[in-house]
Amino acid sequence: AAVMVVNAGSDFRGSSTFACALNGRPSVEGTFVSAERISCSFDALYVASINEEAEGGVTTLSLSIDAVETISMPLTTFTSPTVTAIDLVAINSYGGEIEISVSDAEIVSFCVFDGQITDLLQRSPTSVSCLAPPHAEGAVSVDVSVNGRDVSGSGLELAYVSPAVVDSVSPSFGPLVGGTIVHVYGKFGSSGWLACRFGGVSDASEATRHEDGHVSCITPPGVAGRVEVELSVNGVHWSSSGLSFEYLEDAELTSIEPASGPESGGTRVYIGGAHLGPRGDVVCDFGSSAARSAA
User: How distant is the alpha carbon of residue 250 from its chain centre?
Assistant: First the structure.
């Protein structure tokens, strides 16, 4: 059905009777909304017949008040756009920008989330972007509208989930080459897809879940310095934890003194070089992992 709201007066009265018609066809009963508004609802067959007979696409709405006074105004008719996809299946409860693929995007004026109308942010020939509003956890319908009243009826849904919150990371430092397994603790539920990012510019990688509030991520290659550890439920909108991981310069050895010692071990060896500390425990490896010792 098509619902049209007439904003054509300032003295409509609830005691009056209202009749609405398109192009002079049999009228339907209008509903009093306020002193400034009357709502008229036409079923799909009624609207389809009007579209077939309208000359040049011009349709006229007539509103009769108490079978005496008639107000007429031109209308533009359209075929409702079809929503084909949305770029995200989940978003945190704070909301955020999403892209909706839709036919006839050029005539779309609004996005609709669970009945809430929002303005467009961007438009392309095949899609529109809107800011999904904050919402409690759960699935909501996603739709578009041309006139801010009628929606396309896409049947698509967007899942709102709790935002990921990072409380701590361990270890908090590692080499430039990456590959460090970092354990992240916080509040992000026990199920659902979750992504990690280091520094806001690295490629996202899927987190490995261990238990409620505990996931692990593998660091990508980086440059020396601290970067923020971020999590996301959709790979687009990221947490802002303020917690960091530090990329350390690779250790460089320049001297060993003494350079030899007895097979029985026990020799204290002094090592010179760069980037040997002071952060973290330094471990010396003499030929094999079985012979490691703390510096």
Answer: 38
Which residue, among 107, 112, 101, has the nearest Cα to 135 in the 3D structure? 112
| Mean pLDDT of all residues in 86-104 | 89
Is 247 exposed, middle or buried (CB count within 10 Å of its CB: 0-12, 13-18, 19+)? buried
Structure pTM? 0.59
CA distance 3 to 231: 43
DSSP characters over 208-234: EEEETTEEEEEPPP--SEEEEEEEESS
Q: Are 175 and 156 in contact (CB under 8 A)?
A: no
What pLDDT digit, counting tens, does each position of 236-295 carry?
788 877 888 999 887 788 888 888 888 888 888 888 887 776 555 677 777 765 555 556
More confident residue, 51 or 119: 119
Q: Which of these, 158, 69, 67, 78, lies nearest to 112 by C-alpha position?
A: 158
Alpha-carbon span 88 to 83, nearest angstrom: 14
For residue 34 the two structure tokens come to 């306020």
- For the chain, the C-alpha Rg in angstroms (whole number) is 32
What type of residue is 264? S
Question: Which of 199, 233, 229 shows the shortest CA–CA distance to 217?
Answer: 229
Q: Whose structure tokens read 């505990």?
A: 214
* Per-residue pLDDT tens digits for 147-158: 787 788 888 999
CA 66 to chain centre: 50
Using alpha carbons, select from 130, 150, 151 the residue that is nearest to residue 141: 151
Give kind and range of the element (H or E) at residue 63: strand 58-65
Could you give the angle at the alpha carbon of 230 between the alpha carbons of 226 and 233, nearest 5°? Answer: 170
pLDDT at position 188 is 77
